[in-house]
Queue: 2 jobs
Job 1
Amino acid sequence: MKKFLNLKEAAVIAIILIICFLALFIVNSGKNGKYAVISSDGNEILRLELDKDRQNITVANAENIVFEVKDGAIFVTETDCHDKICLKTGAVSKNGQSIVCLPKKITVKIIGEDSEADVTIG
Amino acid sequence: MFFKNISFCSAIAAILFFCSCTSDHAAEHSTAELFVMDTVCSVNADKDDIKTISSVLSRIDTALDCFSKSGEIHALNEKRSMNCSEDLCDFIKKTTSLSAEYGNEVIVSGGAVTMLWKEAQKSEILPEKNDILHSLGNIGDNFISFESGNVISLKNECMLDSGAFAKGYALDLCRDVLDSSRNSDHAVISMTSSVLLYGKKPDNSKFNVEIRNPDGNGIIGTVKTDACFLSTSGGYERFFTVDGENYPHIIDLSTGYPTQSDLTSVTVFCDSGILSDYLSTKILIEGTENIENHLESDLYKVAAFDENGNSYISKGLDFHKK
Amino acid sequence: MKKSSDIALAGILLALACGLSYIESITPLPLPVGAKPGLASIVVMFAAIRLNLKSTISIVILKSLFVFITRGFTAFLLSASGGIFSLIVMLMLFRIFRCSVTFTSAMGAVSHNCAQLIAAGLFYYQSLSPIGAYFPIMIITGCVTGIFTGSVLSLILKYHFE
């Protein structure tokens, strides 16, 4: 108990870190997303195509948070929330990645060409 | 000591890792495919519910079948009067009340006319004009009479055709099964042209519906919706061919001929299976002339398309054109 | 029978934890997704070692209330969920499994971050899927900051109390 860190504990931490890095690696080598879906409180408000660069994107219900789409990725350029976690998240572009702003209940999710349909009719 | 340590931490790491990968908790969820009502039916629900639903669908298939020898409606059409199952009696009562409330364009007693065209499809010979005129006189729910017990009699040469209502009706029963068992927190039951979207998906997202392009080229658009029933009339398999000519499957019972509507596909979303089935056919037959009225309804939502590629979407329906 | 010096110590530690927590919240740091070094955790761990269980739990709860009063509900939710869960984890590791200070601190930080993510996800989105992608990075950050705070505490314990 007086030791700094014994070998077994270091091994545990190493295993945890490896698992997490693997997870990050898997997500980042994922497919480039096609759409960024911006939702407020769980409801989709805006769907943007990532291959069209756009600036100064804002959505209703989320005052003062500004997005930009550039080079197939979307990121937050301005926000007035206290923590600015959404800003720090940086640019996301792969399927499954997301940007989240808790206080404003805004989520941006990247989805691919065919977001799996539950059913096809017609 | 070491193992206690390792297993504890690994357990935490594994749990957290899996939380981050997926949030499905589909414990006993499964998908089964059955062939009922002349179509491939896909049931995605809790395993126990699938069993119950399969037996309900088989039962209804037999009751509402208009063609095979073991079908109850087929038997009734032949015998003209017989003691019928609870299912069939209930079905006929519901369809006749729908036609009475919303219109006779879609009616269970239209069999005399629709059978002519089904024959035409088989024999590749168009029906005679006189036969069509004659059969028009045999359409009417007033020709169906309920006698004592569950005896139903068909007057004149009236015939029953359940086609426009059967799938929606079956899905209503499926919904009842799911409601009473409470096993499935969400389910998707697809009978190709009629679908039941039930409950809430595990990740709380809306159901994603793809509508096929009626001209056969992929998807014309997607709809995000909460739980509901939906039915499509028209669509890309809307024709049958006789002598090289294409005729829509849907028969306009006012003329006795396949519909000449300018709408190519109509999908109706609402909280009743049988109503969605009925309305999709009715709205398609009415064409673009009356579509605006339907788009205003609070009871149901519509996504319709015409032969020029125009779309008619109800306000409040979350539709995205592809 | 608490010694009066213990009560005084608890008070000082509480004030210290609140102070550190506040300083951290206004100091921007180049850490991903708003992660913090968790200096207040050093204090909590110290309390866990030197004081009895009740005092430590009180410090964690009162610190969360302080956060509630000064920084609002979101901060409170994160502080309370993270604080309580990580305290449980740290006590288990330290007392039952007899792990080293550094390791306990690292796991404490990881569990603090994870509990915060789960609480935030469930409370604001009623589901884990929007925040699920943040787990790997928060676990890595937790390990790193935890090792850092654990080392600091370890050094403090070594050179000042032995």
Job 2
Amino acid sequence: MHKANDSISALMDGEVGEFELRRTLEQIEQHSELGQQWRRYHAARASLRGEPQAALQEDISAGVMAALEQEPTYHPSVYTEAAAQPAAVQQNKAAGWWRSLSSMAVAASVTAAVIFGAGSFSEAPTQSPTFYLPGNSVTNDLMRTRLGGAAPELGRYESPDVIRLSDGLTKYIDQHQHLISAQRMPQWSTRWMPEGYSIVRHELLPHGEVMVFANGRDAFSVSVEELGHQSLPEGVAQADGYIAVGKRRGDHFVTVVGDVPLMIADRIASAVQPER
Amino acid sequence: MSNESQAANDQVLVKRVQAGDKYAFDLLVKQYQHKIIGLIGRYVYDPHEAMDVAQEAFIKAYRALPGFRGDSAFYTWLYRIAINTAKNHLVSRSRRPPDVDIDVDDAHYIGTDSELRDLDTPEHALYRDELERVVKTTLDRLPEDLRVALTLREFEGMSYEDIANVMDCPVGTVRSRIFRAREAIDKEIAPLLAN
């Protein structure tokens, strides 16, 4: 909890990267005391600055959020990369290591998306699940039927289209079952990582897992997929300063991506093991 | 803390809400509720009524958020919604909005000398004054390195990196000092702000 409090303080100052921002928001959501701490920190700031405040013993946020329960959650398509940058970094181009971490995070996410494919990576926890329509190969199976004028008035955020799919549905049923399942636990871990790194994210995907490790400055991701679901062959690849090492581990495939030396990436890939 | 810095910080949370993270809006509510209630209280004098109107203003803000593109600061945009909601509330109750108005660009800094009436019931005023006293007293008693770090951040609006240069220490140390300073203040004010 101490670490979360520290992150709340940094978040107030716009001094957190994307990973820490997401993690901090998740922790605040899980622990109501952290939300109260956020409120008090801001009350103290306003007090220091002599800004007018009222009803200091009241908290209307629970009422507001309860009222918003029926409201739509906005679509992540409006999310821009700029928002992934720490606010202070946006203001100060010289803010070195936070910027590095943030760009690394974006790069790692993009790489992971390439490895897993857009359909299965659409379940990032801080975004609404996005279900992609199948590509050209199933275009003929997609039939859009527009509701006629007699259709009931639709809400502001609803699409007027009804989409019927007859092919590729298995994949989405699979994804759906994965998303609604709360029982699944992480199956993989790594018994070795470079000094100073710790895990900052562990995603469970329909056919694998992604772990992200960071040391506050750099980050690398480890993907474990069921054999046959990977996008790369065994071996090493390099692009844009990032290295990717792919290794077969029994009936699974491990891919390590980051701007770490090849030997380190290889050692990490070799250290990945199933949880006991 | 500079307005630009505050606006940039808010924008990060706004983008999170727009990206589908509804809970990020809860943080914006928690952050601004006391200022918004204070602002609305200059139009709607009953404290409980003012809180209801503030709640309505936040709900309207959430609904309008997809259209917010950051052309103005979030708090300026939010204050405008709050003022309009308060005025509409008065009209709906057949009450006339005051002739004197608040410029939203100055709403952040309107003091008790405004011509508009302050929502300061004796109880509210007591809490506000006590909070201010405790915060400032605690700040004065902090070890110098913590006090300087927090002061540079809150009053000068300096980034952690700039503070690190001024204090000749690593950025991580600045972050830790500011957090410890806030924690010390929070420990003192928590009982005052318990709801």
